[in-house]
């Protein structure tokens, strides 16, 4: 008979394996990281997965299906202690519940316009696009059309969306792309769902880590966190430092410096100093 303690232990082992031991890595190697939390979720039922596939007329890739049959999403987060009395949540690895994965076109109809060719009503998001496969380094071709299926996995404020892209509904190997909302450019992220999960863990769930692979680059305050906690991730991609810095309209997780500290004392002449010394 399986005891409650054994069930809890198995749950802990599963999430430790799923996160590749990230919590232990924090405890052993990176000081000041605290409040490391992994939210435990029930797995999806097979009927839920089948219903989702039927609704969208596609098949989930095998690794993604096995993930959701083990846990309905993933939520891992941690905080950083900037000072004894200042602890803020910084890292976050999040994969939504299966039911929350929806078609991108359903969510951004208001910002998609018609093609410049008035005879074509396909929005600009549906188009041919070249991208560099970061694994092989070769130029690949993304050919999207009206039959393509694009699903949103996460949103990075109003800058970009992480998308699961099926070029055709019959495709058995959808890929993960970053869609830049300002330009509708596609940036390749991963060949598989498993690879994208591992990339999230390798980047420690640092804020906006996907923008490392964008044309705009990281916000400056996020880059400072990378330099503080994982500088090696920037060293492998030095070319991203040449990109324009993005101004994100939100409060970054660090203290604001009061410019008053830079106010200088009134300067006095050397003659005045000599008079004071003589007196």
UniProtKB/TrEMBL annotation:
Transmembrane segments: none annotated. Pfam families: SMI1_KNR4 (PF09346). It comes from the Eukaryota. InterPro entries: Knr4/Smi1-like_dom, Knr4/Smi1-like_sf, TPGS2. Gene3D superfamilies: SMI1/KNR4-like. Residues 43-199 form the Knr4/Smi1-like domain. This is Knr4/Smi1-like domain-containing protein. It comes from Aedes albopictus.
């Amino acid at each position: 008979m399986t005891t409650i303690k054994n069930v809890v232990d198995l749950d802990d082992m599963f999430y430790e394996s799923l996160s590749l031991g990230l919590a232990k890595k924090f405890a052993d190697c990176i000081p000041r990281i605290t409040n490391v939390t992994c939210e435990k979720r029930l797995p999806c039922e097979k009927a839920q997965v089948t219903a989702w596939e039927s609704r969208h007329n596609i098949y989930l890739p095998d690794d993604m299906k096995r993930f959701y049959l083990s846990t309905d999403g993933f939520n891992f987060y941690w905080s950083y202690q900037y000072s004894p009395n200042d602890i803020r949540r910084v890292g976050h690895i999040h994969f939504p519940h299966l039911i929350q994965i929806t078609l991108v076109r359903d969510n951004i109809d208001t910002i998609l316009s018609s093609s410049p060719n008035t005879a074509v009503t396909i929005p600009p998001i549906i188009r041919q696009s070249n991208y560099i496969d970061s694994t092989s380094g070769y130029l690949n071709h993304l050919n999207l059309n009206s039959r393509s299926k694009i699903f949103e996995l996460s949103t990075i404020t109003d800058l970009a969306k992480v998308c699961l892209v099926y070029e055709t509904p019959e495709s058995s190997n959808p890929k993960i792309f970053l869609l830049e909302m300002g330009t509708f450019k596609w940036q390749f992220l991963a060949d598989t769902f498993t690879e994208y999960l591992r990339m999230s863990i390798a980047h420690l769930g640092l804020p906006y880590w996907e923008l490392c692979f964008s044309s705009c680059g990281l916000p400056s305050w996020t880059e400072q966190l990378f330099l503080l906690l994982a500088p090696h991730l920037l060293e492998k991609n030095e070319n991203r430092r040449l990109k324009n810095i993005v101004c994100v309209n939100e409060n970054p997780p660090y203290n604001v410096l009061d410019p008053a500290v830079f106010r200088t004392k009134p300067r006095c002449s050397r003659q005045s100093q000599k008079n004071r010394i003589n007196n």
